[in-house]
UniProtKB/TrEMBL annotation:
It comes from the Bacteria. This is DUF1499 domain-containing protein. Pfam families: DUF1499 (PF07386). InterPro entries: DUF1499. The lineage of its organism: Bacteria, Pseudomonadati, Planctomycetota, Planctomycetia, Pirellulales.
Length: 145
């Protein structure tokens, strides 16, 4: 009976980790992610929004206030760009990842804002896919607002 308890206490957490790994080549050796034009998953590509940079930044700020694991740390506004520094804390072990969102509007593309974002783990060599999940959660959440 004791062996069953030991096996279950090791096997269940291990199975949960293995189940959450999305990309076995990346997730063990990389602790950062970015929204990139070449990403296979649409939610991991830079996003384009209609409106002013400040309005999109306000939208992201409102979304982050509704999320228990997300905190807005800093906001820097300029005429054509806003940078949001955020943190995302994991549920179980409370690891903190730094997320930087850049919103840019080019003068020639008035009314359109492009969102670029990066997520970086503070500790560890690999992130087990958490940073891409952070970015996907951010993109889905802001698109749903």
């Amino acid at each position: 009976m004791i062996w069953f308890i030991i096996l279950a206490s090791i096997g269940i957490p291990l199975a949960l980790v293995v189940w959450r790994v999305d990309d076995w080549n990346r997730d063990w050796t990389t602790n950062h992610a970015s929204l990139e034009d070449t990403a296979v998953r649409p939610e991991l590509r830079p996003q384009i929004f209609t409106g002013a940079v400040a309005d999109v930044a306000d939208r992201i700020e409102r979304w982050s206030e509704q999320q228990s694991h997300w905190d807005l740390v800093q906001r820097n506004d300029t005429e054509w760009e806003t940078t949001l520094k955020m943190t995302r804390t994991t549920g179980l072990f409370r690891f903190v990842d730094d997320v930087t969102v850049q919103l840019r509007s080019a003068p020639e593309s008035e009314g359109h804002v492009t969102m670029y974002a990066t997520s970086q783990s503070r500790i560890g060599k690999g992130d087990l896919g958490q940073n891409p999940r952070n970015l996907a959660e951010l993109v889905r959440g802001v698109n749903a607002m």
